Amino acid sequence: MDIGPPECLKTALSVTPKLLMGPGPSTSSPRILQAVRQSVLEHTDPDLFKIMDDIKEGLRYAFQTKNVLTLAISGTGHSGMEAVLSNLLEPGENVLIAITGTWGDRAADMARRYGAIVNTVSSKFGTTLKLSEIEDAVARVRPKLFFIVQGDSSTGVLQPVDNLSAICRRYNCLLAVDVVASLGAVPFYMDRWGIDAAYAGSQKVLGAPPGLAPISFSPRARDVIFSRKTPAPVYYWDMKLVGRQWKCFDEDRIYHHTISSTLLYGLREGLSILADEGLEHAIQRHRTCAKRLYNELEKIGFELFVENEDDRLCTVTTVYIPDWVTWDDVALYMRRYKSKNASKLKKKGFRSH
Amino acid sequence: MDIGPPECLKTALSVTPKLLMGPGPSTSSPRILQAVRQSVLEHTDPDLFKIMDDIKEGLRYAFQTKNVLTLAISGTGHSGMEAVLSNLLEPGENVLIAITGTWGDRAADMARRYGAIVNTVSSKFGTTLKLSEIEDAVARVRPKLFFIVQGDSSTGVLQPVDNLSAICRRYNCLLAVDVVASLGAVPFYMDRWGIDAAYAGSQKVLGAPPGLAPISFSPRARDVIFSRKTPAPVYYWDMKLVGRQWKCFDEDRIYHHTISSTLLYGLREGLSILADEGLEHAIQRHRTCAKRLYNELEKIGFELFVENEDDRLCTVTTVYIPDWVTWDDVALYMRRYKSKNASKLKKKGFRSH
Fold first, then answer.
1. Fewer CB within 10 Å, N or C, chain B?
2. pLDDT tens digits for A177-197?
3. Cα–Cα dist A54/B13, whole Å
């Protein structure tokens, strides 16, 4: 051998459990962790097909949709974003992207790579986009697709998306919504609200490990995918093929890629836990917890970043960091790593966990 | 709610363990399954960075390389294939793809989607490509990239790749090798053999769950990536960004996507097991087991598909299926599902497991 076995791999893995309080991944429950350690199944095993079918049902409940093209992409939330953009856009087509935080910029970057003509409409940082601003932009740009984030984890803003489909229909435009940081914690009615494409991540409210991106396309979006003039640019998330692997169409199942059974186990259990609790209860619970957090943060002197309480995303609470610390300091301290201002932070009421 | 919680999710997950004898995924060992059930860590946690560093070391050992751009893509083997093609090719560029089974066709499909001009050189089904055939094709096509599969799981053929770099250098062409079904089980010396890009899957010889694609790029390939005229078409596997997340360059780590800690735990342990055993021993063990399998299969009357024993891939043994059964029948029977010809199969010496 030219390269010897590395020293660092001579010891077995040891992971110190941490309570995850960031915008995601969330801490997985013991039931989910127990599930992901079950034996690996082949991607062509009928037992795994049953689990995939369960997941499709659970996702239709979470998205509140009857869309047949509903499944989990084998990648993280970003791959859901990229799957939506790459399947619905072709080179030279107009897309309108709402910039309400980091994720709009990310979507714009991706859409440009696929050769789309990117137009944007931006909110004031930390506030929502108003309906009239969106309507004006759609009327001006006449995009094929309008993309917006429901819960932006980079700002903690909750963007209303219940009232956008009328505008999009009027200008014959598809409506795609990122619900990565919000699905399961705030109301989302994909069918009732006329949303054409939506995607999430397994590791946020659903509490499963990262690695899967739940996704759903309306019949209208599916028709657009099936009538593309050019092939979907990325094989890995070509929905015509992935949809067949998930048996979303009336065609035989095909092999597309080696789906990760262990990740599916985790997502299946996350969805089962959500179904047990009920969406209404999960939404209420997130709201209640967030309100308690706002109160406690304000008690110890923090100012919340999103002024208007109705505009706050209950899953991600953003605060101004006092000028005598850096956010890196706070994050390290809360994760029990050494940080420069640990004693000051402790005195002010921060608790590491 | 418009859609109620689905009945099928009212029961908890139950997985019947199966001994996996297909071309992959392989059965994960208890040590690996125990690892993947450890608590989820955030993608920005220094503890996870340490695990990523361990994995980079382990992969350099497995690939036998000193390449700094060595990491695991957050997707299955297919995403490794697509990452190689999308990073190394630009629209309008010539690629030469060796068709020695299904995976060459798959690579050709992907490369076409990225706008490359696809040229192919095909072997007779079930045999290797000869050096002269490859040299003739490279000289004729003058591709930017030559792509070939070392171990084709669709045919069970082992393609020699130790002697290709001289040809590729002569015609100033990059050499990419798919080692999904072979890495860790047959000799592979990335640096010694002058290979510019290689990728594998976590779920084959390494025995971890599917969901990660180990990948490595030579300094020459890295220079090509960094001097692209167009941006990498896919954000999710833009190696300039993924490489920074994995701290492969002398730059600060960035957030690119929410990497799956549980999948990393599994891969880290798979690599640790390989380092413990040693590559030489693992290779010898696969060879010995394969020979025993060949003998037993021939004893019960099977004809092996790859005639020449030196051309056989020791991880995937292919046989002619007798004309009185279908391969589907055999696969179902071996997985203990009902199959039409179960009694005949049993009589002939097949054992379900």
1. C
2. 999 999 999 999 999 999 999
3. 10
A114 vs B contacts (CB less than 8 Å): 233
What's the rounded Cα separation, in Å, for the pair A26 and A77?
14
The tokens for A103 are: 């994720």
| Cβ-based neighbours of B283, under 8 Å, separated by 6 or more | B184, B185, B186, B187
From B274, B293, B313, the end of a domain falls on B274
String of b and e for A329-342 (b: at least 16 CB within 10 Å)? bbbbbbbeeebebb
Domain that holds residue A322: 12-25+279-347
Distance from CA of A152 to the nearest CA of B (A): 15
SS3 B232: coil
Same domain, A111 and A253: yes
B94: which strand partners? B117
B328: chain A residues, CB-CB within 8 Å: none
- Amino acid letter, A337: Y
Pick from A3, A25, A65: CB nearest B40: A25
Instruction: Indicate yes or no: CB of A41 within 8 angstroms of CB of B18.
Output: yes
- Residue A231 domain flag: yes
Can you tell me which residue has the tokens 């932006």?
Answer: A152
Which of these, A28, A32, A25, lies nearest to A266 by C-alpha position? A32
Q: How far apart are CA B122 and CA B129, in angstroms?
A: 7
- Residues A205-262 have pLDDT tens digits of 999 999 999 999 999 999 999 999 999 999 999 999 999 999 999 999 999 999 999 9
Residues of B in contact with A232 (CB under 8 A): 113
Query: Of B8, B16, B275, which is closest to A47 when you measure between CB atoms?
Result: B16
